[in-house]
Design goal:
Length: 767
C-alpha cells in the first residue's frame, strides 16, 4: 500500500501544469517589446519570462506568503487560522493558501473552493515543491496569475497598466500589481480606486517595516498615482509579428530587429505615406539587411494605412512586377562570363524582335551607349539587346541560382520582357540576392580571395540563430567578385533623386550602389541599394495593383531609400578585388579591347573580359592630301594618300548617335573621280524587317500615310525609293518617305546613287 501510495503521489502532478494558449510575443535584439498577438482564447497571456523581477518577488511574498521560502508547499498555521476565521464568520473571509497552492489552483482552472479541493491542492503543492525550485514556482505564478479583465501574467500586466517591462516598474507600481491577483476587479479605471490604493499602501508599509525599502522610497511611493487608462501594446513591427506568428504561435521570440533603427524607419514610412496618399498611393514596404550576418535589422511590411487599402498585407513577401530591378544581374552575368566590358557600346536604336517592340522610358534613342551608362540610366533597349545576346534561357537559369522563387514559369513564357518587368519577385528575395552579391565581394576582399559555399543563404530574423555560410574555396558561387565590384561601380553612378544630384561634390555623401525599377503601368516603384554593410530595399505602390501616373522608382522609392541610408551607420566604399580584375587598354570611344587603330585608355575589367573581341568600330581609311575626300588606289597615287583611323558606327546607330555626340564625325565622301564601295553604309530605321504596320484614317475617313525612314553614312547622298518596283521618289539629307497603300505584303526598296540597295518586307493593314 505504501508503495502504491508513493507511485500515485509521484504521478499525481501532470507533467505540464498549464496547457493554455499564449500570446505570440516578439522582442528586439536589445530585448524591447516590439509587439504581441492575443492568444487564441482571447486572453493576453505572455509566455513565462526567464526570471521574475526582484521587486515583484519581494512584493508578492510579503503580500501573499511571507513563509514562502520555508514551507513545503502548504502552511498549516495559516490554514488553521483561516479555518477558524471562516468558521466564525460563516463565510470565506480569509484564504490560507500559499503561493504554491495558488499555482496549483490556477492550473486546475479555479475549481470550487471546498475543503476537499483544498486537500487535493495541498497534496499537489507538496509534489510541485519536489519538482520545481522556489524561483520556478514564482515564475509559474507570475506568468499565470490574473490581473483583471483578459490580462494574465505579470509581463502583460506591466505593459497594459504602466506601459513598461516588468523589471522597469517602480516599487509603487510593483506593489499595485502584487495586490491585483487577490482581487483583479479592483483595476477597472474609475472604480474601486480607494480600495486598491489602500491595499497597495498597506503592502508598501509592510515592505518598509520589513526593511525591504527605505523611508524615502516608501514616502515617494505613496505619492505615485494608480494606473488609469490602459496602455496599448507597442506595434513597432506588426507585419513581422504576423509572419512569425504563423510558425511560432504562442512563443516569445527575440528577433534581430534593432529597435532604434526600426522606430526611425517607421517614422520615415509614416512621413512618406502621408505625402503619397494625397496622390492615391497607399502602400509601401522597407527591408534593411545586415550583410555580414544576413540579419534583418528593420522590417516595415506596409504603410500605416487603413483596412480599405490593405493595411494588413505584408508587401515584403508579395510578388510584384520587377520593372528594371533585374538589370544589374544581367550586367554582372555578362561581365563575369567575358561577354561584356563596362564601357562597351551597346546599340540604343528603335528595335523590334519577333513582334516585341521595347521602348526607353523617355522614348528617345542614343544610337549607342556605354554598357555601364545604359545600366546607370536604366535604358530599356540596350538591356533587351544585351539579353538577346546573352540568351533568355541562360539568364533564366542564372536567376534560378539566386532562388528568386516567383520566377517559376518556363523561360519562353517571359521572353525578352524578363529584363523589363515581365517577371515577378518580392522584396525579400531581391534583398537576399543583393546581400549575397555584397557578401561575395566582402568575403573576397577580406579573406584572401576566397568565396563561401552558402553565400546566398536566406535572411534571418531570429536572434538566437546564426547563418552557416559554408566552407570557403576559390570557386565562385554564381558570379565572381570582379563582376560584382564593376557592377556596383556602375550602380553608384545612377542619377540620384531630386535634392541629391550633386552628391559627388561633398564629403558627407552616401557611397552606395543602387538601382530603381518601375513596372508597366506605373504599378510598382522599386529601389534597392547596398553599402559594404547594409542592403536596403524599398517598394512603393498600391497593394491592389492600381497604377498612378507619377509613381516611379526614382521619384517615389528612391527618396525613401536615401532617407533610410542616412539613419544607418556610415560605411566606406567597397575595396577593389585586385585579384579578380585587371587594368587593360580599351578603346576610348567604343569601350572594346583596343586595336592598333584606337585611342586607348586604361580601364578595370574582370579577368574573363580579356576574351572579348577587339574594337569593331575603328577602321583605317584613305584620304586625299587635303583630307577632305576618301580615295583608293584606282583614283589616287599611293604616295598622295593619307591613312587615318576613323570611328564608324553602323548607319542606324550613327543616325541617332551623332545627334547626341557633337564630336562624332561621319565618314568623308569619296572624291568624284573615285568609284565608291559603300556596302553596309545604309539601313532602315523604320520599319523593321517582317513587321506589320496598321494604316489609320482621320476623322474625315482619309487614309493617313506611314513615314518610312532610312539612315545613310553619307549625309548628302541621294536615295531612290520603290514599293513593289514602283518608284516613289528621291530624298537627300533627310531620308524620310511617306507612303499610302492598300492592305497586303509590300517590298520596299531603297537605292543610293552609288547603286547600293537595301530591301524590306512589310505587311500593311488598313483599318
Amino acid at each position: 500500500m505504501i508503495l502504491l501510495l508513493l507511485v500515485g503521489y509521484y504521478f499525481c502532478l501532470p507533467r505540464t501544469l498549464f496547457n493554455e494558449p499564449y500570446s505570440t510575443v516578439i522582442e528586439s535584439k536589445e530585448g524591447n517589446l516590439l509587439g504581441a498577438k492575443i492568444a487564441r482564447d482571447g486572453q493576453w497571456r505572455f509566455p513565462a519570462a526567464d526570471s521574475v523581477p526582484e521587486k515583484f518577488q519581494q512584493c508578492i511574498i510579503t503580500f501573499e506568503d511571507q513563509h514562502f521560502n520555508y514551507h513545503p508547499g502548504f502552511n498549516p498555521i495559516s490554514m488553521w487560522n483561516a479555518f477558524r476565521q471562516n468558521s466564525k464568520a460563516n463565510r470565506v473571509v480569509r484564504g490560507g493558501s500559499t503561493l504554491t497552492q495558488q499555482v496549483i489552483r490556477l492550473s486546475r482552472k479555479g475549481k470550487n473552493r471546498t475543503y476537499f479541493e483544498k486537500s487535493i491542492e495541498m497534496v499537489l503543492a507538496t509534489r510541485l515543491e519536489f519538482r520545481h525550485s522556489k524561483k520556478s514556482i514564482l515564475k509559474l505564478y507570475a506568468a499565470h496569475a490574473p490581473f483583471g479583465s483578459n490580462v494574465v501574467g505579470l509581463e502583460m500586466a506591466s505593459w497594459r497598466y504602466f506601459g513598461v517591462q516588468s523589471h522597469q516598474l517602480s516599487w509603487a507600481e510593483t506593489a499595485t500589481l502584487a495586490v491585483l491577483p487577490n482581487a483583479p476587479s479592483l483595476i477597472y479605471p474609475g472604480k474601486n480606486q480607494d480600495r486598491l490604493l489602500q491595499k497597495r499602501n498597506r503592502l508598501l508599509l509592510k515592505l518598509f517595516e520589513n526593511r525591504v525599502i527605505d523611508q524615502m522610497t516608501y514616502e515617494l511611493a505613496l505619492q505615485e498615482l494608480l494606473p488609469q487608462k490602459p496602455f496599448d501594446l507597442p506595434q513597432t513591427a506588426p507585419h513581422l509579428l504576423q509572419r512569425i506568428a504563423k510558425r511560432n504561435e504562442g512563443k516569445r521570440i527575440q528577433t534581430t530587429i534593432e529597435v532604434a533603427i526600426q522606430e526611425r524607419v517607421n517614422q520615415i514610412a509614416r512621413n512618406y505615406y502621408n505625402q503619397y496618399n494625397q496622390n492615391e498611393v497607399y502602400n509601401l514596404a522597407i527591408l534593411i539587411v545586415d550583410v555580414e550576418t544576413r540579419n534583418i535589422v528593420g522590417y516595415v511590411g506596409n504603410s500605416p494605412t487603413d483596412k480599405e487599402h490593405q493595411k494588413d498585407v505584408d508587401i515584403i513577401t508579395a510578388a510584384r512586377s520587377t520593372g528594371s530591378i533585374l538589370k544589374p544581374l544581367l550586367y554582372a552575368a555578362m561581365l563575369d562570363e567575358g561577354e561584356l566590358l563596362p564601357n562597351m557600346l551597346i546599340p540604343d536604336i528603335p528595335t523590334q524582335i519577333s513582334g516585341y517592340n521595347p521602348q526607353n522610358f523617355n522614348f528617345s534613342y542614343d544610337g549607342a551607349v556605354p554598357a555601364q551608362r545604359a545600366l546607370s540610366r536604366s535604358l530599356n533597349i540596350p538591356a533587351v539587346l544585351m539579353l538577346q545576346d546573352y540568351g533568355v534561357n541562360r539568364f533564366y537559369e542564372q536567376l534560378q541560382k539566386y532562388s528568386l522563387r516567383n520566377i517559376n514559369r518556363p523561360p519562353n513564357h517571359y521572353g525578352l520582357s524578363l529584363i523589363l518587368g515581365g517577371a515577378e519577385s518580392n522584396l525579400w528575395d531581391l534583398c537576399r540576392t543583393y546581400a549575397g552579391l555584397t557578401g561575395t565581394l566582402n568575403q573576397y576582399t577580406d579573406n584572401q580571395s576566397s568565396y563561401r559555399k552558402n553565400e546566398f543563404s536566406n535572411l534571418n530574423y531570429f536572434q538566437n540563430k546564426t547563418i552557416d555560410f559554408g566552407n570557403t574555396s576559390f570557386q565562385k558561387n554564381i558570379v565572381g567578385a570582379g563582376a560584382v565590384y564593376l557592377t556596383y561601380q556602375a550602380m553608384k553612378e545612377v542619377n540620384r533623386p531630386e535634392g541629391d544630384e550633386a552628391w559627388r561634390f561633398y564629403d558627407s555623401s552616401l557611397p552606395i550602389a543602387w538601382k530603381t525599377g518601375t513596372s508597366f503601368g506605373n504599378r510598382d516603384a522599386w529601389a534597392i541599394g547596398t553599402s559594404s554593410k547594409y542592403v536596403v530595399g524599398v517598394w512603393v505602390g498600391n497593394a491592389t495593383g492600381e497604377g498612378r501616373p507619377s509613381l516611379t522608382g526614382v521619384s517615389s522609392a528612391a527618396p525613401i531609400l536615401f532617407d533610410v541610408f542616412r539613419i544607418m551607420p556610415k560605411t566606406p566604399w567597397f575595396e577593389k578585388p585586385l585579384n579578380a580584375i585587371e587594368q587593360v587598354a580599351v578603346c576610348e570611344k567604343s569601350g572594346h579591347l583596343a586595336s592598333e587603330l584606337c585611342t586607348t585608355v586604361k580601364q578595370w575589367i574582370p579577368l574573363s573580359g580579356k576574351q572579348t573581341k577587339i574594337c569593331p568600330y575603328h577602321k583605317s581609311i584613305h584620304l586625299d592630301a587635303t583630307e577632305t575626300y576618301r580615295v583608293h588606289a584606282n583614283c589616287e597615287a599611293i604616295e598622295n594618300m593619307v591613312a587615318k583611323s576613323w570611328f564608324v558606327l553602323p548607319p542606324v546607330m550613327e543616325w541617332y548617335y551623332k545627334s547626341k555626340n557633337i564630336d562624332y564625325s561621319v565618314l568623308p565622301p569619296f572624291r568624284e573621280d573615285c568609284s565608291a564601295v559603300t556596302s553596309g553604309s545604309m539601313d532602315f530605321i523604320y520599319p523593321k524587317s517582317n513587321s506589320k504596320i496598321y494604316l489609320t484614317k482621320n476623322f474625315n475617313s482619309e487614309l493617313q500615310p506611314v513615314i518610312l525612314k532610312v539612315a545613310h553614312s553619307q549625309p548628302k547622298i541621294k536615295l531612290y525609293w520603290y514599293v513593289d518596283n514602283q518608284y516613289l521618289g528621291m530624298t537627300q539629307t533627310f531620308h524620310e518617305m511617306p507612303i499610302k497603300t492598300t492592305s497586303g505584303v509590300r517590298f520596299i526598296t531603297v537605292t543610293d546613287e552609288n547603286g547600293v540597295e537595301i530591301k524590306r518586307k512589310v505587311e500593311f493593314v488598313v483599318e
